[in-house]
Amino acid sequence: MAETYDYRTAERKWQQRWDEEGIYRAREDEDRPKYYALEMLPYPSGDLHVGHAKNYTLGDAVARMMRMLGYNVLHPMGWDAFGLPAENAAIQRRADPNVWTRENIANMQRQVRLMGTSYDWSREIATCDPRYYRWNQWIFLRLYERGLAYKREAPVNWCPNDQTVLANEQVIDGRCWRCDHVVERRNLSQWFLKITAYADRLLADLEKLRGWPERTRTMQRNWIGRSEGVQLSFAVETSEERISVFTTRADTIFGATYLAVAPEHAVVEQIVTKKHQNAVRDFAESLKSRSELERTSLMEKQGVFTGAYAVNPLSNERIPIWVTNYVLAEYGTGAVMGVPAHDERDFDFARKHGLPVAQVIVVPGSDIEAPLQQPYTDEGRLIASGDFTGMTSMRARKAITDRLVALGIGEAQVNYRFRDWLVSRQRYWGTPIPIIYCEQCGEVPVPDNALPVLLPQNVPITGEGSPLARDPAFTNTTCPKCGGAAKRESDTMDTFFESSWYYLRYLDPHNDQQPWDPAKAKHWMAVDQYIGGSEHAVLHLLYSRFFYKFFHDEGWVSESDEPFTRLFHQGMVLYNGEKMSKSRGNVVGIDQTAEKNGVDAMRLFLLYVTPPEDTSDWTDEGISGRVRFVNRVWRACEPFFDRARSVDVRALPQVSASEEKALVRAVHVAAKSAIDETLSRRFHYNATIARLDEYVNALTALEQSAPDSAAVLYAVHALPLVIAPFAPHIAEELWARMGHTSSVHLERYLEPSEQALAVDEITLVVQVNGKIRARLQAAPGISEDQAFELAMQQSAVQAQLDGKQIRKRIYVADKLLNLVAG
RNA sequence: GGGGAAGUGGCGGAAUGGCAGACGCAGCCGCCUCAAAAGCGGCCGGGUAUCACCCAUGAGGGUUCGAGUCCCUCCUUCCCCACCA
Questions:
Q1: Closest nucleotide relative to residue A623's CA, C1' based
Q2: How distant is C1' of B35 from CA of A712, in Å?
Q3: Which residues contact A599 (CB under 8 A, 6 or more apart)?
Q4: Closest C1' nucleotide to A417's CA
Q5: Which of A249, A255, A232 is nearest to A393 (CA)?
Q6: Between the CA of residue A594 and those of A114, A120, A546, what are the distances in Å?
Q7: Which of A332, A356, A551, A709 is most buried (most C-beta within 10 Å)?
Q8: Mean pLDDT over all residues of chain A?
Q9: Distance in angstroms, CA of A78 to C1' of B23?
Q10: Cα separations (Å) of A783 from A764, A770, A806?
């Protein structure tokens, strides 16, 4: 009676063994090339589902492949453990955020292990651990010393539901990224990180990131939003005030027919005339009470006249100053020159409010006297522009900028769309910001030797206001400078702070002298392959690049100033075509799936169902195909354990029959596919697993017809080696059954042999005028003339050539012969 | 409105410019069985005159001896950004 494969027992046994023997532990080793494989660290929300599993399975297959290809692989895992869900659990069911998070970590760690992943658990981190967030505070202080962390009052995004501020990157379509509540604008004093100081490098270095998806680079480019232009000021007729505007189209300055100012702009109060005061105030008030979402979705351009006029510094024309809803207070100077003839928004606004449209650029091929029916936003040759008339737009921009500089009222300027990163949060479950406020000394940083500033336990969390601010035991302290009574900062850090540098802590997770040893960073960085969802294309990936450039400037990391050499976004997993969610109750959990199908089948299915970057659909029928595959692998090997033992898998078997050669070839084709997909970084293991199917199908077939063949014994013994990165448990079990005492995962991968991959016979396609008329079996390397002779003997070819002359012969060696006739 | 990616059987998908549909799922037929499950074998884009030929990779054009693949136009879907001056 044949023994059947018991995946439950085998999986448990091998996971335990790997753990005990620490076979995935990484050590610095100068003799082998290093490879840092990393998946984005998860938030410990409670349970893993097959969506997580896809991410970790892909990363694990890559790490295992690289390990078997001779690389010294670092593959760590940890927990992004601070954040709002823990606090919400505290509010809803009085759970302690610390206990809640620890329990979730324990459960998710169990599930990640259950998947048979090859992580080095000795490097595990949790960001809510004081031994970790201590270094958050340390890094914050270094940023502070460099002037890269600062506090200021600014209009910020406030989520009334989560009772905290949000970074611009966390506001999606005017809504909170976590709870989807409409975000409000508030003027608050908050901590910022000066990411804009790195704007140019963050933008320019995107060019270096050839191993990143193009669309992610484009998204970052657009998010940074660099634009070159000139900032110039207009005199106000009845006031000492001047109004600065930013424009990328200085060449259109003679076409300015009004100035448009944001309602929040400080100059408005100074210049507005008595007569217009009420209208302007009402207008500003009507906008203030609206959320940013309402304001921007309102698209319709509105505005009121201030009664004041400005003077165009080059044409000396007098133009009215309007307050409008379409000028953003936070971008540029909060004011723009309105050029209706050459800007779509200005055109809309001017037409609505009866402002003149002054054309200053020639529209090619049209009568310049005819009034413009639509704005002309392309470049061209200038008219009606004083000294600059006749110049091209490009030349005029330069000349006009030079003139404005000479007049002392303008300068060339670069503006960025993105803003500094708002990092303070009015929440409990995060890293305390290590700053103390003293009445005598002002803002004082906590000294390094007083770190960490511990997050206090047992603080009441109600969901209203900042919990730390209401805890006097925490806020009351003494000033590190003068020793007098002082107050601690009660805000905590955005959790993206922790995740911006965690990949460095893995290198040196137990260091209590510094966040990491720069020598270790020199050895292991940069991350060779980073794998995670595309939802972090801007947020986490931009922040991390910023941090890493700062670390590089400080000399804490060497080599590159980019942390992630190659990036891969895996697609999400649906269930029966629908998004999985707790509320729908259609989440496919890891525990049930592993129990029902086995982990190897689950891993194989996730890699097989689609290319990894595509959205995959989990179906119960689909996984059954891989369960069948695992069982087929077992049945193909089980009767041959004893005989296959003595076969040397590192030497090709002596075989002559074509079926035997075909089987040996199938083994090597599969191995080559696995290697090619890994080294090309395409990771299309769906194709590799199809080759594994063919391998096992060929093996099963030959076992029927020639069970004693050397090819069968070779293919049986090689199978665990070839499937090891994808189905690690059954691979290990088979390997052990064939007499090996050390792990298959520490073996070198099967090296594809040219000889084994070679074919005895090729099929040569014969075309006449591009249509297939015959197929010839021939030896590889057949000459064109020989092929032609054989082709001409084919009746189907003769029939097509009947009465025609061959004008041309196209020959692709070992593939095709095309006869062009007419 | 701008930018990006993609359209191939009932489904997921495969195919360095060279045999379209590998491999699998579902389905159908058969073997095994008292029966079922499992397993094994076969069929499985459409048409017709079925050991053969014709049509077929969203639609239309182009380049080429040859196009699913490259170029242009259009249609559709998905994603991202969206008053950034």
A1: B25
A2: 36
A3: A7, A11, A114, A115, A116, A729
A4: B84
A5: A249
A6: 8, 22, 40
A7: A551
A8: 91
A9: 36
A10: 11, 20, 18
Residue in this structure with the two tokens 């201590």, named with its chain if needed: A134
- The answer to whether residue A651 scores a pLDDT higher than 90 is yes
* HSE-up of residue A145 (Cα within 13 Å, Cβ side): 11
The predicted-structure confidence for A265-307, as pLDDT tens digits, reads as follows 989 999 999 999 999 999 988 877 666 666 666 557 889 999 9
3-class DSSP state of A126: strand
Q: Of A56, A122, A143, nearest to A570 (Cα)? A: A56
What letter represents residue A111's amino acid? Q
ipTM field: 0.94
Query: The tokens of A615 are what?
Result: 């959205």
> Does residue A368 register a pLDDT over 70?
no
A793 vs A808: CA distance, rounded Å: 18
Compute, in degrees rounded to 10, the torsion defined by CA atoms A233, A235, A239, A242.
10
CA dihedral A394→A398→A399→A402, nearest 10 degrees, is 170
Give strand letter and number of the nucleotide nearest A246 (CA to C1'). Answer: B85
Reported as a single tens digit per residue, the pLDDT across A168-200 is 778 877 778 778 888 887 878 889 999 999 999
Nucleotide nearest to A302 (CA to C1'): B83
Query: Residue A802 has which token pair?
Result: 């009947």
**CA dist., res. A251 & res. A397, Å (int):** 5
3-class secondary structure, A412: strand
Which pair of structure tokens corresponds to residue A616? Answer: 């995959």
Confidence class for position A378, pLDDT limits 50, 70, 90: confident
pLDDT for A666 = 95
**Type and span of the H or E element at A190:** strand A184-193
Distance A525 CA to B76 C1' (A): 44
Distance A602 CA to B10 C1' (A): 25
- Distance in angstroms (rounded) separating the CA atoms of residues A728 and A372: 70
By C1' distance from the Cα of A331, the closest nucleotide is B84
d(CA A485, CA A336): 48
Neighbour count for residue A779 (Cβ, 10 Å): 11
Distance CA A668, CA A673 (A): 8
How far apart CA A277 and CA A16 sit, in angstroms, is 77
Is it true that the peptide bond before A452 is cis, omega within 30 degrees of 0?
yes
CA of A697 to C1' of B3 (A): 46
Q: Which residues contact A232 (CB under 8 A, 6 or more apart)?
A: A244, A245, A247, A250, A253, A313, A404, A409, A410, A411
What's the CA A253/C1' B85 distance, rounded, in angstroms? 12
Which of A461, A551, A538, A413 has its CA nearest to residue A100?
A461
CA–C1' gap, A547 and B63, in angstroms:
49
Nucleotides in chain B with any atom closer than 7 Å to protein CB: 2-5, 11-16, 18-20, 22-26, 38-41, 52-54, 65-67, 79-85
For every residue of A332-387, DSSP letters joined together read TTSEEEE-GGG-HHHHHHHHHHT------BPPTTS-TTSPPSS---S--BB-S-GG
Helix (H, G, I), strand (E, B) or coil at A568: strand
Peptide bond into A167 cis (omega under 30): no
